[in-house]
Specification:
It comes from Halcyon senegalensis. By secondary structure, the protein is mostly beta strands. It contains 6 helices and 16 strands.
Length: about 325
Amino acid sequence: QPLRINGVKVYTENVDKRQIILDLQISFVGNCEIDLEIKRYFCRAGVKSIQIHGTMRVILEPLIGDMPLIGALSLFFLRKPLLEINWTGLTNLLDVPGLNGLSDTIILDIISNYLVLPNRITVPLVSDVQIAQLRFPIPKGVLRIHFIEAQDLEGKDTYLKGIVKGKSDPYGIIRVGNQIFQSKVIKENLNPKWNEVYEALVYEHPGQELEIELFDEDPDKDDFLGSLMIDLMEVEKERLLDEWFTLDEVSKGKLHLKLEWLTLMPTAENLDKVLTSIRADKDQANDGLSSALLILYLDSARNLPVSYILMDTLLS
């Protein structure tokens, strides 16, 4: 089945004039016949269908004066796409040593390692384009997330076979692109206080969002307590947001966040001021707050020593 593009958004504001940014709503629903047989373990498995849905960003840059008018093409998903695989015979396959960890989640993680921000695929269209700078761009900024507290969450834990509704053991999962943070679990509390701080690099805006999901920790399957999506363009515009946000997809519950947008400065003139500021807040994060960003490009290597270990193994 061919790939479908359900919608295209072109950004015309707050973008570099030397690039074109497109967001494509990608939808692939494919019928397929994939059969796998492992004779040693007498098992068979297969895939009957696969679906993938998500927002793929396409960046055309740099724009040049000669054909093909575009120096390179970059592709990536702004966030993890939705993946659904219809397996057949998977139960027997998972009994095979080495394959018992196979799941849709593992496959989605592999996709994320290649195609979800900050990872991307960059295809040069002309020979003299600076491909390294396009594949590994300098972040647009740093988002400091103060994950403070929640209020009036739903009580998911039940007792006496559901007759008595108790409290929840809430924790949060915070995502910015492919960067994921998980808070500590607060036991038996519908008004938890986390007071944790996370820092995430932001590579793309507009279009990138802060995603937060709250869950109730359970021995079997964690219960959903609500979610939140915040446009990072709003955070950059305000520079500092300290608000209570109403949780989506649930009947009640609020989340208190303080969000700071930190801009990267090309010189160290304000470093002393930044260091003084973060010393005052040093107890907020487990590994301390950042004062600067180090970007290291590993360009090439030469005259490496030859390893004979593999050769000795082959000869023996």
